[in-house]
Amino acid sequence: METRTAEYRLSNEIRRNLESCILGKQSEIERLLTALLAGGHVLIEDVPGTGKTQLVKALARTIGGQFRRIQCNPDLLPSDITGVAIYHPKHETFLFRPGPVMANLVLVDEINRATTKTQSALLEAMEERRVTVDGDTYELPVPFTLIATQNPIEFDGTYTLPEAQLDRFMMKISLGYPDAATERQMIISPNATSPADQLESVVTAEGIASMMEDVRRVHLDNAVADYIIRVVRATRDHSGVQLGASPRAAISLTAAARANAYLQERDYVIPDDIKQLASCVLAHRIIMHTESRMNGLTAEDVVQAVIRETSVPVRMER
């Protein structure tokens, strides 16, 4: 019990550290921490200047792990991400030079500016936590989380993310503009231009890995598991949907719900965990019919409708 209390206290310190740097975004910070502890990846989609990069840099400094940044552009090659084997004349052998993906936290900035071939180089890393270069396989460090950003407004020189890659992101979130009071506080801050650079680490990568193990042990009742399945399957049966959420989505929602429960200092999942996370975990995986989109129906609308209409379990075992 003392160990669990200490780890709950540590998660609160991580949260406070981030909130001191990224003002007015408590909910988004919570989602990012949820994905980190669940071992998932995050796509942050928002217009420039809303703090996407600062949020990831702040998280990297807070957890004290290896951090690498990949700035995407059409000239970026797959080997620029995964690494390359270079011939060493003295030893008459090939030596592997790791790419930036070999880190605990990887920021892929403006991911939609990379070509589809380069984007596909991330699929193995995101799903299997390893990369293959010239037939040799290299394991990624633990923990490993990839956070990608993209601008939803600018389309010149961009490439649409394939569905297979979208499905590998546990969550898709948006920061949005701050309210007036928060924005005023930001501009009068002496560290307004680079607030993340002032942060100190409050945990190590090993500490995060230990917390992830505790998250996996959070209890999931059979009734709650059935609720998750009903929610996910209902997205496939909706009349406005062409392609609903995948089985991977159900696994992601379950892992995220466990992490959310952990951050709320519970050792068991409740239906409210699923309700809180359903939109950011499921919506980006759903493909709408063209007619539905023309009528203004969005994937978020579908998920919210499914949550309202799916019966919630009232009795659970602990």
Automatic annotation (TrEMBL):
InterPro entries: AAA+_ATPase (IPR003593), ATPase_AAA-3 (IPR011703), CbbQ/NirQ/NorQ/GpvN (IPR050764), ChlI/MoxR_AAA_lid (IPR041628), P-loop_NTPase (IPR027417). Pfam families: AAA_3, AAA_lid_2. GO terms for molecular function: ATP binding; ATP hydrolysis activity. Gene3D superfamilies: Magnesium chelatase subunit I, C-Terminal domain, P-loop containing nucleotide triphosphate hydrolases. Residues 38-179 form the AAA+ ATPase domain. CDD domains: AAA. Keywords: ATP-binding, Nucleotide-binding. Belongs to the MoxR family. This is AAA domain-containing protein. The lineage of its organism: Bacteria, Bacillati, Bacillota, Bacilli, Bacillales.
